[in-house]
Design a protein that fits this description.
globular; two-stranded antiparallel ribbon; mainly alpha; 15 helices; 69% helix
Length: 359
Amino acid sequence: MTSIPLIDQRPKRILWIDYAKFIAIFFVIFAHQTLSKSWFNFISGFDLPLFFFLSGYLFSFKKYENYKAFLKARVRQLLIPYLILNLVTYVLWLIFFKDFDPYYYTKEPLYKQFIGIFYGNGIQGYLIHSIASWFIICLFVLENMYFLAFRKAVGWKKVVILFGFFILAILDHKFIHFRLPWSINVAIVAILFYAAGNMLKVHIDRFVQLSIPLLLAVFISSFAVLYYATHGNYVDMDQHVYYSLKLFYIGAFSGIICAISFCRIIELLIGPVSLVLYIAKNTLVIIAFHIMLMSLITHVFAFWMGFSIEVVHGNNLWSFLTAVVTLFLCIPLIYVTDRYFPVMVGKPGKAKGLKQQQV
């Protein structure tokens, strides 16, 4: 009898996507730390659209036989982690953070945060314990919308359906002043980014094959458009606020192109970096816990330097350092959840198929 390990058939990771996810999650942390309006406007103008776009690029209808199979997978990968991570952070908030940091203080009843988990919007005092987790449930809703709307669509029908969502986004922006559960309003606006990533995958694959000089030219020009579109245009997808929806879409797509070209250049010049890949494929933990970690680090810096926490938030250098430290302190949390609580982040337990089989 011999021991034969099964071949690991997991797909090879796409490095420019890992770099893009790494940069995007860092910007999420920095945006939640800094009080600089210009930095917030710049980051919020493209950062979350980039996440939606990358999710669309990685999605394939071919992976699922039917909607039931798709829904089962997404419940495991997104919905269950959303609920578990929120329950964990809610308990941490109740026990410690609501009395530790003014950011977490609220006059609202304590049960409101619990209700907020099922409401799925980080507004009006809901989800204060893990406000960034609205993105997880929003992505779950968006992907269900996309699967149901586009699964059987071909050719011009895709364009018609996508245009319909664009019209819905405009109508929602202009006339709907209440929030639907599970960030449905945001999903309607964001589905254009997801669809672009999925429908233009072949063209994106061609684009990243350009030479470094051409990629650099695209990066510079798209960055200029991004800067113009985000300068003074306040955007907060969580709050569903867009001063100019037109500038938001222009800036977001410019930022996506900018990020792709920049990250492809990094891939060609540097190649894989294990730490970047590790963080890039474990963003759910960071989304859930980074604000709590950031709160702790901000207080440590303030105590160490002898000034108020407002100074840490108000100074770009300190905000940047806090974001860096927060990102890297997420690594132990990632390790613990991956090793002991994989269901929290949508992963199965240790795959039996990867163990050695006796034959």
